[in-house]
Design brief:
By secondary structure, this protein is of the alpha/beta class. It has 4 domains: about 5-175, Rossmann fold (3-Layer(aba) Sandwich); about 180-240, Helicase, Ruva Protein, domain 3; about 250-360, Up-down Bundle (Zinc Finger, Delta Prime, domain 3); about 430-525, DnaA, N-terminal domain (GMP Synthetase, Chain A, domain 3), CATH 3.30.300.180. The protein has 25 helices and 8 strands. Strand 3, helix 6 (about 135-145) and strand 4 form a beta-alpha-beta unit. Helix 3 (about 50-65) runs antiparallel to helix 4 (about 80-85), helix 9 (about 200-210) packs across helix 10 and helix 12 runs antiparallel to helix 13. It is elongated and about 115 Å long.
Length: about 550
């Protein structure tokens, strides 16, 4: 006798047998009891969640010969029920929309639909993957679908309801099938293993159910593959050996190395996973799943029912969750999801994976905004270990601002020993003394205001100093440097520093080498755009503090 796969052998036979779709089953049962069965249904949902199964159950319930009228509990023994189970009933016609998608097939269906059923109450058409029908075929269905003969029922099933034209959907009662939870799949798998008298380890069932991704059929198919190995008892190691499932202990170890900030351990853990034969994409997928569990446990506690883990896994997850904060886990999951597509389509997937996970591991060395503001304001905030906080980038580089392993200094970069202060005298300096000491002035500006500001002013030379107005002249190719000196509050800070050193109020005037000198007047720093939002951001004290601390400038403003 030919072998019947588990997905067919244990297919639900009644509404009460259907796993994970209780609201839909109950609604259809109530419709049958009250005599309000619609003439057309549209069942939507991912693969293997019970669309065709419930369509067959509904067909049996409407046509069961053991009862004189439709019933919610078909006998599953009469000729009609048995024929429906194997798809051979003459009054229940199952059509594959992928291969019968032309207008001619639909016209033939319409011509046959007018004839009454041979032995049952209703002639029922079940069209699977209905979204594969052509537009012409859909249009050919419209009239009979809106006003069908009283003895005809239509049941459409699809995984892509968006491809079913609106005029068809409006003529149907639509039911959206949800993914089946791992707990429900695990319960059914245990029942099947018991019925098949297969020995198994308890720790096997839950990981196998999670691999099904909400599809009962996929879960049964995976179980079939494991049973075909001939190994008993079935164990978790078989998932790794035959189904390509990453070793859970190795995944936990990788997450632990990331949590400890151990870069060498992180790379070694990645190597250990890759050497087992799994792909970089599988590593990313597993990390997303496991970090999601950590996020939930960190947010709700280790006893949360929102995660499906055994006692040992809960304990391990609780320990690892202490190495992260919720914000970091949220960022990690979002970053891994973006990384997944990059890794999948990259020729250097291994390097991308390693670089991204190293960034997670070393993320405590990235400076976050709150800490930066606190330190620049002279606060004594302690360094809090926050994995994978989003770093602040300077306009010079897309990479995050890295810090040393030592506590961060007030300035964003290590400074050289401060130069000796400029010699000052009661008399204001003249232009010649400013020119002679310009390099010392630049070193002072670099020390006090950062290398970015000092670097920008290195493109200028003092032109004149009259009535407290110091004119700095930029070369013809230094227009960008001039604008950056005028923006983000730099100009005011430079003026304050020079006024302090010269012992007299100093106003800066910046001009290009080709410009004609105009009457000396204070130069007001202007934003690069007249946008009101940009002005508000530039003038915000906290933003100014961050920009100056990082020697950065605003290059773009985006509103959510």
């Amino acid at each position: 006798m030919a072998y019947t796969v588990l997905a067919r052998k244990y297919r639900s036979q009644t509404f009460d047998d259907v796993i994970g779709q209780d609201p839909i089953s109950q609604t259809l049962k109530n419709a049958i009891k009250t005599g309000r069965v619609a003439h057309a249904y549209l069942f939507t949902g991912t693969r293997g969640v019970g669309k065709t199964t419930i369509a067959r159950v509904l067909a049996k319930a409407l046509n069961c010969l053991a009862f004189s009228e439709p019933t919610t509990e078909p006998c599953c023994k009469c000729d009609s029920c048995l024929a429906v189970n194997v798809g051979e009933d003459i009054d229940v016609i199952e059509i594959d929309g992928a291969t019968n998608n032309g207008v001619e097939q639909v016209r033939e269906l319409r011509q046959n639909a007018i004839y009454r059923p041979a032995r049952a109450r209703f002639k029922i058409y079940i069209i699977d993957e209905v979204h594969m029908l052509s537009v012409s075929a859909f249009n050919a269905l419209l009239k009979i679908l809106e006003e069908p003969p009283s003895h005809v029922k239509f049941i459409f099933a699809t995984t892509e309801p968006n491809k079913v034209i609106a005029t068809i959907q409006s003529r149907c009662q639509r039911f959206d099938f949800s993914n089946i939870g791992p707990a429900a799949i695990a319960g059914q798998l245990k029942l099947v293993l018991k019925q098949e008298k297969i020995k198994y380890e308890e720790d096997l069932v839950l990981p196998l159910a999670r691999m099904a991704n909400g599809s009962m059929r996929d879960g049964l198919s995976l179980l079939d593959r494991l049973i075909s190995t001939g190994v008993e008892p079935l164990s978790v190691s078989l998932l790794e050996q035959f189904l390509g499932q990453p070793n859970s202990e190795k995944i936990w170890n990788l997450i632990g190395q990331i949590g400890d900030g151990d870069s060498a351990g992180t790379l070694a853990a990645i190597e250990g996973l890759i050497n087992t034969g799994i792909s970089e994409v599988q590593v990313v997928d597993s990390l997303i799943d496991y970090m999601r569990d950590l996020m939930v446990i960190k947010s709700t506690g280790p006893d949360s029912q929102l995660v499906i883990l055994n006692d040992q896994q809960r304990k391990r997850a609780g320990e690892l969750a202490e190495k992260f904060d919720v914000a970091a886990l949220i960022y990690n999951i979002a970053a891994l999801e973006k990384l997944r597509w990059a890794v999948k389509n990259s020729d250097t997937s291994r390097a991308l994976l390693e670089a991204s996970l190293l960034r997670f591991a070393l993320s405590e060395h990235f400076l976050n905004v709150d800490e930066l503001i606190s330190r620049l304001k002279g606060g004594s905030a302690t360094i809090v270990k926050k994995k994978a906080q989003r770093a602040i980038n300077s306009p010079r580089s897309p990479e995050p601002l890295a810090t040393s392993h030592e506590p961060l200094a007030t300035s964003p970069e290590p400074r050289a020993t401060s130069p000796e202060p400029l010699a000052t005298s009661p008399e204001p300096p003249d232009i010649q003394s400013i020119r002679d000491n310009w390099q010392s002035i630049l070193r002072l500006i670099t020390t006090r205001l950062g290398p970015g500001t000092g670097g920008l002013l290195s493109s200028a030379v003092p032109a004149r100093f009259e009535d407290g107005v110091l004119t700095l002249e930029f070369g013809p190719s230094a227009q960008v440097q001039r604008r950056m000196c005028e923006g983000n509050g730099r100009l005011e800070l430079i003026q304050t520093l020079l006024s302090e050193q010269f012992s007299t109020p100093v106003t800066l005037k910046l001009k290009m080498g080709a410009e004609e000198q105009t009457a000396a007047r204070p130069v007001v720093a202007k934003p690069r755009t007249s946008s009101r939002k940009r002005n508000e951001l530039i003038n915000d004290p906290a933003v100014k503090t961050v920009l100056l601390g990082l020697d950065a400038t605003i290059t773009n403003v985006e509103e959510d």
